[in-house]
Amino acid sequence: MATRTLTYKVCDGCFRTDRELSPVEIVSTVTVTQFCGPTKTVDLCVDCDEAGKFFCRQCFRVHSDDNPCDAILRRIERSHE
Fold it and tell me: Helix, strand or coil for residue 61?
């Protein structure tokens, strides 16, 4: 018996896939080396890229500018003043 492997693209910002009715167009791809674990490829679609979402190297997630990581970084900077 033969085995088939299905591959499709997934946006890591909104989790839309190619298998839906409106296909996702990936415009930004980042390869990240994690502290513990294998390398990870992060893909962002056109909508997430226009919304300003990005890959955060502090928490290893995709989010926008208003995020808890920025608040943590600002708090650390204020403590060093």
Answer: strand
3-class DSSP assignment, residue 65: coil
Give the pLDDT confidence of 61-72 residue by residue, as tens digits. Answer: 888 776 677 777
**Domain residue extents for the chain:** 26-79
Strand 61-63 with 54-56, pairing:
antiparallel
- End-to-end, the C-alpha distance of the chain in Å comes to 67
Q: Could you please report the per-residue DSSP string of 27-55? A: EEEEEEE-SSS-EEEEEEEHHHHHTT-EE
3-state secondary structure of 78: helix
Measure the CA–CA gap between 39 and 21, rounded to whole angstroms.
30
Residue scoring higher pLDDT (43 or 81) = 43
